[in-house]
Amino acid sequence: MDRGVIASPGIIQRLPQGFKMERSLSPEELRYYIMYWDKVVIPGNNLVYIGLPDEDILIQSGAIERPKVGFSGSFGGDQVTDAILSCQSLVAKELVKDKSVDWVIHQLGSECSFPNGYNQRRNIIRVDLASILPVPDKDTNIYEILEFKENRKDELKNLHNHLDSLYELVLTAPDSELAAKKSMSELASVISDLTVVTAEKFTKTRKFDLSTELNLSGKDIAIGMASGSLIDFFALGMDIPLATIAGAIISTIKVTSKATSTFQPAAHNSKLAYLSTAINDGLVV
Q1: Which InterPro entries match (predicted)?
Q2: Is 146 inside any structural domain?
Q3: pLDDT (tens digit, 9 = 90+) per residue, 156-172?
């Protein structure tokens, strides 16, 4: 099954009157999406279009898709802000219905934000993986990344499969050791192998964090396992060293329970949303 990500074109902040465009996606963040997902969808709109670095070549190469949400009628003030902030959710609402692709909604930063109508407050389990995913730097040719993905598709698929296995373990079998020693060892090995082959191909890379919000009401909860027990178990958080991954950066897994705003149309999925941040001091030359 292909894996797809629906991303926002940038970081947009709502203001008392209107909005502030903090920045668009960086070239490095775009390469992160292209590297780790088969399909990358970054919606735009016909009111205020947020362009991307190297957008033409990204579209022409098939690396990303930029569907444009069309709004009709007159818009002013907060209506424009609401429309812009809703584009990712509008497109994601339709795509997550497609079960032939494993679609996830993705935002940058430490917390997800969704507009009214797509926002649901609920208890979740969050898995944070620090310094885990190597990404080619901003000057790397897009076609090189696409070629690498094709040549290393088995390693990339293996990474996603092991991450999914880890998430299922978190949701179904929490015990004092997270019931995951074997899974942890296998995941560390997969990441280490991927880091090595990435360094062989690209002279400069940067590590990205990856956080995943897991659905406590989804089908992956074990029969008889109350979600309240999971919340209590992870209430204070649990840090698990993963490994030293091809260098000096020690990667860790942190599992916590929390109440947060989630993407309502994904309410039946095991993965509600992804978040990522580039590690400022993680540049490998």
Answers
A1: DUF6236
A2: yes
A3: 999 999 898 888 888 77
- In the chain, where does DSSP find H-type helix? 27-36, 55-60, 78-95, 142-151, 153-172, 181-201, 227-233
Distance of alpha carbon 22 from alpha carbon 13, whole angstroms:
7
Q: What share of the chain is helix, strand, coil (3-state, %, to 5)?
A: 35, 30, 35
What pLDDT does 243 receive?
A: 58
Q: Which pLDDT tens digit goes with each residue over 115-135?
A: 888 888 888 889 888 878 899
Query: Quick count: other Cβ atoms within 10 Å of Cβ 40?
Result: 22
195/187 Cα distance (integer angstroms): 12
Q: Which residues pair with 241 in a beta bridge?
A: 252
Task: Give the least confident one: 29-43, 148-162, 189-203, 220-234.
Answer: 220-234
Rounded to two decimals, the pTM is 0.88
Q: Which domain holds residue 67?
A: 2-276
In a domain, 199, yes or no: yes
Number of domains within the chain: 1
CB of 59 within 8 A of CB of 142? Answer: no
* Predicted confidence (pLDDT) at residue 182 exceeds the cutoff of 60: yes
> What is the C-alpha separation between 217 and 271, in angstroms, rounded?
11
